[in-house]
Amino acid sequence: MRTRLTLTATLALAALGSAHAATTLTVFMGSQQRPEIFQPIFDRFEKQNPNVRIKIETGGATSEAQNQYLTTVLAAKDNTLDLFLIDVVRTATFAAAGWAEPLDAYLPSKDTYLLITA
């Protein structure tokens, strides 16, 4: 499951990166989501996409603290964050508020995706 999440995040970043040349993407994640695991993936992505830099922003020691921070930032229409990792129980709420959307349009077909994760 972790590999699938990691590859999904990488593919989403690739889609965003190809759409925005010479840019920095800010990714928010909680410190308990282990940013050190994502860093090598982001480093590899940056090497493959030299015009894109990824900055990790961490915060909130708990899911509730992260939710409070993200709700404040997103409700204020602050565009500081490009991507964020959220607790699975928050996805419906964030989607209903218009802060999250399916990434299907940015990812390869399911058949290709399954080949990548296998």
Structural write-up:
The protein is of the alpha/beta class. Helices cover 50% and strands 14% of the residues. It has helices at 2-19, 35-48, 63-75, 91-96, 110-117; strands spanning 23-29, 52-58, 83-84. Helix 2 links the parallel strand 1 (23-29) and strand 2 (52-58). The longest helix is centred in the N-terminal third of the chain and has 18 residues, at 2-19. The radius of gyration is 14 Å and the shape is globular.
Number of helices: 5
Report the end-to-end length measured between terminal Cα atoms. Answer: 11 Å
Spatially, the strands of the biggest sheet line up as: 2-1-3
Helical amount: 40-55%
Count of extended strands: 3
Poorly predicted ranges: none
Global mean pLDDT: 80
Report the structural category.
alpha/beta
Let me know the largest β-sheet.
Answer: 3 strands, parallel
Order of helices and strands: HEHEHEHH
The proportion of strand residues reads: 5-15%
Radius of gyration, taken over Cα atoms and rounded to an integer in Å = 14 Å
Global shape: globular
